[in-house]
Automatic annotation (TrEMBL):
<dbReference type="Pfam" id="PF04199">
    <property type="entry name" value="Cyclase"/>
</dbReference>
<keyword id="KW-0378">Hydrolase</keyword>
<dbReference type="GO" id="GO:0019441">
    <property type="term" value="P:L-tryptophan catabolic process to kynurenine"/>
</dbReference>
<dbReference type="InterPro" id="IPR007325">
    <property type="entry name" value="KFase/CYL"/>
</dbReference>
<protein>
    <submittedName>
        <fullName>Kynurenine formamidase</fullName>
        <ecNumber>3.5.1.9</ecNumber>
    </submittedName>
</protein>
<dbReference type="GO" id="GO:0004061">
    <property type="term" value="F:arylformamidase activity"/>
</dbReference>
<dbReference type="InterPro" id="IPR037175">
    <property type="entry name" value="KFase_sf"/>
</dbReference>
Length: 206
């Protein structure tokens, strides 16, 4: 048995969503001071992260309110049949070979653009039609290898999922290593009083 890491590494060069504060790791003290200590500043929406309902829903759940049992479990991998650039992902664009589990990982291959200028400007995004299908299947979480479930500058898909108590994970990576239709998945955030959190996302490869 092994585990496949789906998380981007965070460092001073990590890209951030347009308009978000830059992610900074500063040395607060060094070995010359007897120990190393870092000071970290940045949005919790940096890198691979989770959005809780409070991100857009007043009085919605914050990250520390999320049921940890919904963050761990069997996930269905939905792969796009073609490369999609700056356009919506519709039901006809994905392979659905198995029943939809409570967690869905949407594999678009857009993570390969990570580090390029177009990563945050031309991402594929979830259509209303696909969002409807996932909501009707009563999923608990949607994870994707793009910067957003929405088209850049829009928020409607975020709001639809979060209003239905569906958490969102964005900026997955290494999805080329997922060859099966289902994996046991883990999306582990900090226990933090906030609308979002950095996470370690990984799956069990049995």
């Amino acid at each position: 048995m092994k585990y496949i890491d789906l998380s981007h590494k965070l460092n001073k060069d990590t890209q951030v969503y347009p308009g978000d504060p830059k992610f900074v790791i500063e040395k607060f003290s060094t070995a010359d001071d007897d120990y190393f200590l870092s000071n970290i500043n940045g949005s919790p929406h940096t890198g691979t992260h989770i959005d809780a309902p409070y991100h857009y829903i007043k009085n919605g759940k914050k990250v520390d309110d999320l049921d940890i049992n919904t963050l761990i479990g069997k996930a269905t991998i939905l792969k796009t049949k073609r490369e999609i650039v700056n356009d919506s992902i519709n039901i006809k664009d994905i392979d659905i070979k198995n029943p939809i589990e409570k967690i869905v990982i949407l594999k678009t291959e857009w993570y390969k653009h990570w580090g390029n200028d177009d990563y945050f400007t031309k991402n594929p995004y979830i259509s209303n039609e696909l969002a409807d299908m996932l909501i009707e299947n009563k999923v608990k979480g949607v994870a994707i290898d793009t910067c957003s479930v929405d088209k850049i500058g829009e928020t409607k898909i975020h709001k639809r999922f979060l209003k239905n108590d569906i958490w969102i994970v964005e900026n997955l990576t290494n999805l080329n290593k997922l060859s099966k239709n289902n994996y046991y998945s883990y999306f582990i955030p900090m226990n933090i009083d906030a609308e979002a959190s950095y996470i370690r996302a990984f799956v069990k490869d049995e």
